[in-house]
Amino acid sequence: MSELLVRPKQTPEADGSVIKVSPEDARWGYVGFEVYQLQEGQSFTKETGDREIAVVLLSGKADASTNSNSWDNIGQRTSVFDDSPAYTVYVSSNDQINLKALTDLEIAVCSAPGKGTYEARLITPEDVAVARRGYGSLEREIHNILPADKPADSLFIFEVFTPEGNWSSYPPHKHDQEKLPEESYLEETYYHRTNSPENAFAIQRVYTDDKSLNETIVVKDGDLVLVPKGYHPVSNPPGYKLYYLNVMAGPVREWKFTNDKDHEWLLEKN
Q: What gap in Å lies between CA 94 and CA 150, rounded to an integer?
């Protein structure tokens, strides 16, 4: 199995966790990613320490609070494939997040280095800009949870919905060098979900120009792919819907990328 592929636990731990990847686990410096499946009535608490955290409610409802704010009965999706953006709680460093599951609840906990710059806040579906990107078999839908124009110290967060038979993160691009303003260094995770967990799969490539990294990964429902460097396109076979949650962070909060020159010509057709 690829070292870039993290499979979820089949049975959640006592705290509800099915995926836990720290920067140390990933052997990089910025992005942490965790997934929890909580039962109705179960509680979740996490200290942020020196990191900022964004908790994305993938499905279910919860009461949420931090040291200074609280929000009751948030969440409205029964699945990531419901036609609605997610509720997300942003929490700064030196704070904590508390959740109580009002229904069965699945959450993604996204983290990166924080400076304590911004107050905790609730990001509602109405706050999330929805955009179509690409054309034809390259078209996909983007939910901009935490894009560059929204406040955070390090994190970028997006939900991406790739229709059946389409490609996304395509033409292939990379962001693995600190050479602004042309390109920024950003680590990235892809948390994949499908609408047919038993049958569906997708393909993700991760490769560099010199092919010193050249992986072709088959992903199933609930899998996480780590992208430490290189290009990273995704293909969704016909017959199924594909969702992934992207988390990015690096030393500078700018998203500047370089397209694979072999495929950049596809942008001219758009």
A: 20
Spatial strand order of the sheet with 224-227 comes to: 5-6, 224-227, 187-194, 242-249, 156-162, 140-146, 129-133
The dihedrals phi and psi of 127, each to the nearest 5 degrees, come to -85, -10
H helix or E strand, kind and range, residue 72: strand 70-74
122 class by beta-carbon count within 10 Å (0-12 exposed, 13-18 middle, 19+ buried):
middle
Nearest to 77 by CA among 52, 101, 106, 50: 106
Domains of the chain: 10-269 (2.60.120.10)
pTM above 0.85, yes or no: yes
Torsion angle defined by CA atoms of residues 193, 79, 123 and 73, in that order, rounded to the nearest 10 degrees: -150
pLDDT tens-digit profile of 206-240? 999 999 999 999 999 999 999 999 999 999 999 99
85 vs 124: CA distance, rounded Å: 8
